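Fold it.
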Amino acid sequence: MRYILIYLTFLIVFTQNTQAQDPHYTQYYAAPMLMNPALTGFFNGDVRASGCYRSQWPSVQYPYTTGTFSVDANMLKSILKEGDVMGIGFTGLFDKSNDGGLKTNAVSASFAYHKLLDQYGVNRLSVGAMATYNTRLLDYSKFVFGQQLTPLGFDHNLPTGEPINGFTTNYLDYSVGIVYSAITEESSFYCGSSIYHFNQPVESFNGPIHKIKPRIVVNAGGSFTVGESNKFLLSAAYMNAEFTNDLIFGAAYSKALADEDYNLIMGAWYRYNDAVSPYVGLGYKNYRLGISYDVNVSKLTPASNLKGGFEITLSYIFTGNPETSGNTGFDFGLPGNSYHSEGGFKCPRGSSQLRWFGY
């Protein structure tokens, strides 16, 4: 019974909810370092803090919940070659399923270097790496065992019959990534690729040893200006892991409100063979708030009743340079079209090209 429960737990986690190993965010752009380590420090400002929270499958008794918090900074702008920037960052992740029966905690440190490729500040190549320490806990008290079965059903107050109450496993894994971007005054484009768990770490819960296979990510996006300060935005991401393939793509429209300190963003994303996700975002100066909800349209619709997952994201970018503050538009994770003389990112019309998707 114990090994059946362990197997079923891992099967659910790895096939339907890869959050326990890797986050499964709809607003994946709001956790950029979990999409590509090369996005560390890839924003207009000095320090960026962002958080994401997701509750998935609310139709089940115990929804899956995942949260991420990250802080990153771009540094050495005045020391490196003009236009080059170094980024460092830290990310924390928690995930739990079955009311905490299986829990994951992870802490990551990442590094990236952003190299300007031309004198016009249009083309840029970024490379990055990340190290992650993972802890996973399997808690038997959250499951039922054969010895707890009575004529009236399962009694959780009875002993499980197991010598211990669960297992914990710890491991280190490593990730690398690369991103190319090109920005002009009216449009922007980026594409990138990354490999997570490339060292194939081993985890085990006192049973068969599982070697985590690499997760490959390819993502791209862009934007173009509509009118004076509005933008049309596109993005897509593909992830290939050991037990699943995940393709998500979508678009949004960003409109500057009467007070240009505010932006309203509305759009939708589609996860192939899984869910449609309406999105609403609001920007105020250097704050960004996003809300999305997955409407399940897969074969699980009869069980899920169209319910998928709720997400909320919040980010703040601190900058000591008043020229880079303010909010006149969002973009798809791209740096500005040129640089300040001190080597930082510069953006057209004083807006941040780095604000959309949290990059």
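Residues 2-16 form the longest helix (15 residues).
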